[in-house]
Specification:
The protein is an alpha/beta fold. It contains ten helices and 18 strands. Helix content is about 25%, strand content about 25%. About 5% of the residues have low confidence.
Amino acid sequence: MRAVVTTGQGGSEVLQLREVPVPELGPGEVLVEVRAAGINNTDINLRSGWYASAMPAASGGASGPTARPSPERAEGGWNRPPPFPLIQGADACGHVVEAAPGAGQALVGRRVLVRPCVREHGFDVLDTVWMGSDFDGAFAQYVRVRASEAFPVESDWSDAELGSVPCAFGTAENMLHRSGVEAGETVLVTGASGGVGSATVQLARRRGAEVIAVTSAGKRRQVERLGARRVLERSTELTAVLGERSVDVVVDNVAGEGFSAMLKLLRPGGRLVSSGAIAGPRVELDLRDLYLKDLSLLGSTAWDEAVFPGLIGYIERGEIRPVVAGTFPLASIVEAQEAFLRREHVGKLVVLPWEDG
């Protein structure tokens, strides 16, 4: 099969299109023919070494192509050193073509979405392993996964549309679930035009929340169409425009220099939840804002059990919609990631492993 193999940490030169063996299944696993695989920040962050604790504070992760592994510590994985050479890709839509003993045959022939966040020791433990980061992922024509992580989906969406969902919508829904967003609350979403941000806008509206979105001026209309009640430009002084104590929940995957204002915007008892830091992971925090208003700061990486089955239901009932900005053949993975880094799009860019290019 064809696959893009990441040979180590570095720039796009470490991405190699290769012919590799189709994965052999172990007990309880299924083989998925990958029809679409979305591109995510983590693909670039992992190969660039951005997750290393010693990464310079000025680096914005997948915000630009200049990120490189820290010379002090080059592991740069989520929880452990990445197992290079590695096939990346955390999003997979495809068809199950084979099932190993212990997996059953019910999934064979079904179109599925793969849950990329595996709670390998159960949902009472926060340990995770991730497809495309800890084991081979979806930038290939086939991927093997545990049968428990392959979810049948009945939908008239295209493969590319379904392939845009798992990582972005799963991450967004987990943040809203973890922070307990309820109908009638006001939710501020930064980075609202990206894959996770655009998913968060939709999913927060689905819960009945009022959404204030922050994005660039040129993307305002597109974000409004996703359900944001108000859209503000990135350069806006948020506390001046919205006022302090004006929102219940902040969903912030941007961080960087604007982080300190987020806590001032929160009402007493408010929550800030994050699963990323595309503008930089080192932030300024005034602890008085935290404790005097009884705020909660929540990290969100390990997906809760209800999140992914819930997403399948939202898709099948038409409660959310995909936002696919463009598709690329597997051979154009470098061009796809370069387009991703330019951040001129709204929603997701998707790789189609069986498309010629």
